[in-house]
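Hi Q.,

Before the meeting this afternoon, I wanted you to have the calcium ion prediction in hand. No need to reply - just skim if you have a minute. The sequence and ligand are here:
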Amino acid sequence: MLFLCASAALQYFDPMALFSTRNSSSVWVLAFLGAAGAALSAQACGGDDGGSSETSGTPTSTTSSQGGAGPSTGGNGNTGGDGGSTSSNSGGGGGGVGGGSSQVDCGLEAQGPVPDLQLTPISTNLDRPVFVTAAPGDNERLFVVEQEGRVRVIVNGVLQGAPFIDISALTDQPGQVDEFGLLSMVFHPDYATNGRFFLFYSDSDASVVSEFARSANDPNVASPGVVQTILNFPGAVGQHYGAMMAFAEDGYLFVSSGDRGDSSTSQDIDDIHGKLLRLDVDDVDTAPPGNLPGGHPLVWNYGLRNSWRFSIDRCTQDLYISDVGGNWEEVNIEPPNTGHRNYGWPIADQGTECTTGTCAVVAHNHNSGDCSIVGGYVYRGTGIPNMNGRYIYGDSCSLRIRSFRWGGGDTVALEEELTDNLNSDGTLQYMTSFGEDNVGNLYVLDLAGGLYRIDAQQ
Ligand SMILES: [Ca+2]
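Predicted structure with the ligand bound:
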């Protein structure tokens, strides 16, 4: 999934051989990805995305009915060099991103370096975990998205055997290095009373956001039946699905769409791919007021490549949009209600010194060993005071975890890499996502099966 680099790896190694011979052992391939991360970044992940000769797919379609998604047209024309992959944030809308600042102290502000930290294992028995969040108003449970189509529930630290929901019959089944499958989850801000939640998944023809419902009498169970289709648009061709979702404070839902491996989509504001979208889950056929005029009605921002994870600071409502690039792994930041921005892809893959659109606030070049940014969250917990207000994020390939505090515009403060402090590169094999709970704790997920909480050492 994750990762562009994973896709790039396919150009050097026959993935089908891996799948067919080692299908039952993720560790072998993961170890390969982890160890080869730096090399991949220099080879496969490097280089600009030459674009593809594919015509952009039929745009869109937000529809409340199933169907409507056109098949993705044949293979993409990427020649080697495409880097990337998936990135972006999890919104956590549910866990608080979209609004819930009530359980955190927004007055705390980091004053200096963080103390000694650790990655505390919460579970190491997950199956390809790619996202974690909490439900608004529920401090007992964590919900972990597994890529093959299940959401697992952890109650007071204990992983439950039965999944919360299993939609593996609806979604593609990923091989070891595939980006597709069940990719993210978000709870409705009023989930505690209405039981509504949303899943982003792929099938062979489409990227889909559907609404599901919690069981009326068991908080650990949901119905696998689709309540309504929120989005259904032509899917990616193996890479760059986007796939993050988060509710903003005004109740509208942000959804990222990747460029589907066709960089020509990102600057085309009529095309739904390569965008940050904004929609109303209560009226999916009508775009919310305030979206970018003149193009696809759901577009909020354009010029993105693959925002695998993005998040909203629950205290300031600032939007942190990571974007997996061809040469640069970017963090783009915008204040609430600003939008309508062109983040440059593919014209400008130039990090913080771009010549087109809005430049990244922070960026890391592939020559540093990074190759697939994993957007995180602004820390708002109480356990690590000097991390408060800092954005925490990582990279799938380098396994680095970094932090900084945004100072507005293109300024940053308190930049501090936390890789050694957390021993992230010694613990994780393939970083997939961060997540946030209701009280502001941050978590990180490893495709090899681990869920870890970022804690201060006691
Ligand atoms: Ca950019």
